[in-house]
Amino acid sequence: ILLLIRNPKDVATSFYHFSNRMSPLPSYETWDDFFVAFMTKKMPWGCYFEYLSKWNKYAYDENLMTITYEELKENPVLGVKNIAAFFGISLTEKELQSVVERSSFQSMKKNSQKTHGAFGDILFRKGGVSDWKNLFSEDQNEKMDKAFEEHVGGTKLGTKLKYEVYCKA
């Protein structure tokens, strides 16, 4: 199993924009309204921290590889190599480069109309890292950090996310 996880602050930011563009989902007048709903577990898809906590039960399973979105953005070649090795797939240099190129956010966004139809514009917005800094107030940042520590701080997944997001930033 390949488990891709992401900085909870960017998850919230992404869900905010996604929710407001996806008509069946609740939309929010302001980021502040969304943030309250996100932090009080009022999301239609559940609580991201609880999702991470549930996966922590399997974090040491040899059949699970966890990788962060941030790792893949920072070094996609290494990320693809590690994923291929985990699944026992041997790639030539040409195949590796093809996978890296075709799985880049830019490439997926460019092809999203073909692969996802009209839904592609909703799914592929920016694909960046740290966009949360454009929305979070200092107070919201502190609340998110506290919730992170309470739910996943000190766990394998929490430690991995914290290193990728907080120590490398």
From TrEMBL:
SUPFAM superfamilies: P-loop containing nucleoside triphosphate hydrolases (SSF52540)
Keyword Transferase in annotation: yes
Record has Transferase as a keyword: yes
Keywords from the named record: Transferase
Gene3D superfamilies reported for this sequence: P-loop containing nucleotide triphosphate hydrolases (3.40.50.300)
EC number: 2.8.2.-
A molecular function (GO) term: sulfotransferase activity
Domain Sulfotransferase span(s) in chain numbering: 1-155
UniProt record similarity statement: Belongs to the sulfotransferase 1 family.
Protein name: Sulfotransferase
Species annotation: Burhinus bistriatus
Recorded name of the encoding gene: Sult6b1_0
